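About this split. The held-out portion is used to measure sequence recovery: a designer receives only the structure tokens and must propose an amino acid at every position. Recovery is the fraction of positions where the proposal matches the reference. Here is one held-out target exactly as it appears in the evaluation file.
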């Protein structure tokens, strides 16, 4: 199935327990054509059931030097 929609939830660590429980309902039966991305500075405040249903990908910050090395000095 092709992905037609993306749902991005930023700062997932700031969701209340009630909001996380509601979010779990979406994770239990996600739409087939949708990718769901939740960002969080730390997974410690996310419910274990959310973490168990999600693929965790760590994205580390990139320095300005690394960006210039990769993209070139175009500005």
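Reference sequence for scoring:
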């Amino acid at each position: 199935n092709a992905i037609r929609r993306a749902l991005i939830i930023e700062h997932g660590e700031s969701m209340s327990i009630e909001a996380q429980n509601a979010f779990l309902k979406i994770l239990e039966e996600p739409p087939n054509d949708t990718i769901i991305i939740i960002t969080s500075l730390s997974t410690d405040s996310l419910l274990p059931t959310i973490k168990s249903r999600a693929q965790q990908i760590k994205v580390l910050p990139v320095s300005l030097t690394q960006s210039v090395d990769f993209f070139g000095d175009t500005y």
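Annotator remark: The first strand starts at residue 5 and ends at 9.
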